[in-house]
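Let us work through a complete example step by step.
Step 1: write down the sequence.
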Amino acid sequence: MLWYCAFTWYPGTSRAEVAQRVIQQHDVGGNHPERIRGWYNLAGGGAGFLIIEADHPDDLTAFLQPYMDLMSWDVRAISELRYDEEIERLRQVTREST
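Step 2: predict the structure and record it as tokens.
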């Protein structure tokens, strides 16, 4: 299952604090880079999102908890769509509704 995990640093959180925590979690094996499908920062800094692959919400929670004192999280389950397949599915929906 894929999870969209938007983050926003709390006021007063510094770049150095975030950098230290990311490295700390990496060094102890807590970041599980094999599960990170995408990592994006928003322009201006202090916010962004990750796309994480995890089979169970508890696995995702274990990944996010070490950062919860530095940033807030907005987490949503997502499903990936393949454009051409989705267009065909939508064509079928429109045929069925007419």
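Step 3: interpret the result. The mean pLDDT is 96.
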